[in-house]
Amino acid sequence: MSWRIFHGIFDRPFPRPIYDRSPQTINQETIFGRGQNWFYSNRMDFQDVQMTSYDGIKLSAYYRAADRATNKKLVVILHGWRDAPSAVAAYAQLYLEKTDCHILMLHLRAHGMSQGDYIGYGLADSQDLIMWITYMNKILKGPLEILIHGWSMGAATAILAAGSKRLPENVVGVVADSSFDTLANQIRYIMRKRYHLAPRFLLKMVDHFVIKKLGYSIFMVSPYAKAKMITVPLLLIHGTEDTFVPPPMGEAIYSRVRAPKRFLLIEGAKHVMSYDTAPSIYSSEVEHFLKVCKFLE
């Protein structure tokens, strides 16, 4: 059972594609579906860029240059568990509506065009993120002004990077939408909800496989622990009807943050659906946050 749970949680969602391909049909009933359609309609505006991680994995991302070549503003967007960059393209649209900026949308390890056999849940990914920022500073002849926006696992990745004390100084703010507080708590929650199992013994067995295959313990993946070390402004967002990552997890992270912070709770929103549920509120809050970070004058 624990071996099956490990594979269900940590295996990459599907074999690594040879190249990016638009889905035959895109559901445009949500703002994210329309964002995905926008991305593939404007695919030629995005370059494929690659980088090698600290442990030798080939990582990929989509890069869209700002309209003004001399622009020094960059937004890095991180997707969630078993998602792809196109799933969060609506956020790229959002920022491009607010200001002219460079956009970098990452394929997290073991997702999409990036290599990797196992999903990292933010720990390894946070180091990849820091390397991507260093890479973009070099390519775009920085220093840049950088904002990070992540949802779900991408939000956890952003928080872990921000609290690592290794984040480049030119990162001016982080938006974290629907982050779990700790990976161990998230797995416990899913075990109880989906498998109706007491998680204590199984969690230890799953952790044994994680240590063996990934080289670290699930107990090391803790946005909650890193939150108190964040020094840049942080906007936390959560939906009141999130039954995958419950709102108290976001509240726990918020309670630890010492930097300028705001917790936005969207009434009626399910997991990572806050922007779709209340687009005007979400957009105005992001715009205000950009001004707080002096990313938008």
Could you outline the blueprint of secondary structure elements for this entry?
Elements: H1 2-10, H2 31-41, E1 47-52, E2 58-64, E3 73-78, H3 89-98, E4 102-107, H4 123-139, E5 145-151, H5 153-162, E6 171-177, H6 183-195, H7 199-214, H8 223-227, E7 234-239, H9 247-256, E8 261-266, H10 274-277, H11 279-292
Parallel strand pairs: 3-4, 3-5, 5-6, 6-7, 7-8
Antiparallel strand pairs: 1-2, 2-4
Helix pairs in contact: 1-7, 2-3, 4-5
Can you summarize this structure?
By secondary structure, the chain is of the alpha/beta class. The chain contains eleven helices and eight strands.
- Residue ranges: pLDDT <50 for 5 or more in a row? none
Helix content: 40-55%
In angstroms, what is the radius of gyration?
Answer: 18 Å
CATH topology: the name is: Rossmann fold
How are helices and strands ordered from N to C?
HHEEEHEHEHEHHHEHEHH
- Content of β-strand: 15-25%
Structure overview:
- 40% of the residues lie in helices and 17% in strands.
- The chain has eleven helices and eight strands.
- Strands 1-2-4-3-5-6-7-8 form an eight-stranded mixed beta sheet, sandwiched between helices.
- A hairpin with a 5-residue loop joins strand 1 and strand 2.
- The protein starts with a helix and ends in a 5-residue tail after the last helix.
Highlighted features:
alpha/beta; Rossmann fold; 297 residues
